[in-house]
Structure formats: C-alpha cells, structure tokens
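pinging the channel bc i need a second pair of eyes. not urgent but kinda urgent?? the chain im working w is below, pasted from the shared doc
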Amino acid sequence: KSRVGIEFAKLLGWSFFDTDDLIEERAGKYITDIFNEDGEEVFRKMESDIINEMAAKDNAVVSLGGGAVVSDNNWQVLTSSGLTICLYAKPELLYERISKKTHRPLVNEFTKDELMQRINNLLAERAERYSMAEYSYESKKEVTAKQLANTIFEQLRDDI
C-alpha cells in the first residue's frame, strides 16, 4: 500500500502519509511493540487520532493499516474527507509480503499455516468494509507499485 501510495502521490503532486509510520514515529517504537506493551486498544486510539488529523489535510494521499477501516468512526471520517481506494491482494501474496517484515504484529508468532489462516480470517472479517471503498484495485506480484499507481491515476484523474 505504501509504495503504491507514494507513487500515486507523486503523480498527483500531493503529500504522502502512512498512518502506521506516523504511529511508530510518535510512539517511538514499532507497532508490534505497541501491541505487546500497550495493547491493541492503545494502538487503535493512536490510529484514529492520526486519521482525524490526516482528514483535515488537503491534497494528501494517506495509506492506512488494514484494520483502520473497521472502526465506524474512522470509516465516516475517511469517506467524508476524500476518495477511498482499496488495494487488495490474494492471501498468498499477502503472506509473502508480510512474512518478510519482522516488526509487524503477530508475524513471528505463527507458523506459515497459522499465519495463512490468520490472513484469511482477517480478510473475511474486513471484507464487508473493504467492499465499501469507492474504488478497488488488485495488487499483483507481476505489477510494480509504479504501474499500479499509474493505472489508478489514469482511471481516477477526472474524479480527483
């Protein structure tokens, strides 16, 4: 999401923000550490605060963590402040991507089968909200972030 968001923001000439990066920067620790030391509730509060802050910005592309849209309040803020674009990928590709990141919540705690099950469960839990995005694009292994950003830009340039 972040790489596509960065490329999309460049095409628009806008600023780019990643809520997970902002949370880590403000907390002074990785999201995994926030989850482990402070709990998910603290993380979600920080996430909501940052989403509200980002919603007040003009000409910004904001990349969200996958669970951010589950909150009704977050969703209302997001839909009232700009376009919602869902980037999705097949579970196998998500596994490949997140298994390389050692500072993501829960990644190191599961075997491959357990992590795949967790990914599928999270996708199922979030599917309804993800389907409510105004636009959806599949992220594929063979398509670069820049290519996907260009596709989105070409299709949405008249709506932005």
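so The chain has a mean pLDDT of 92. and The helical segments are 2-12, 19-27, 31-37, 40-55, 72-81, 91-98, 112-130, 145-156. — does that match what u expected or am i reading it wrong
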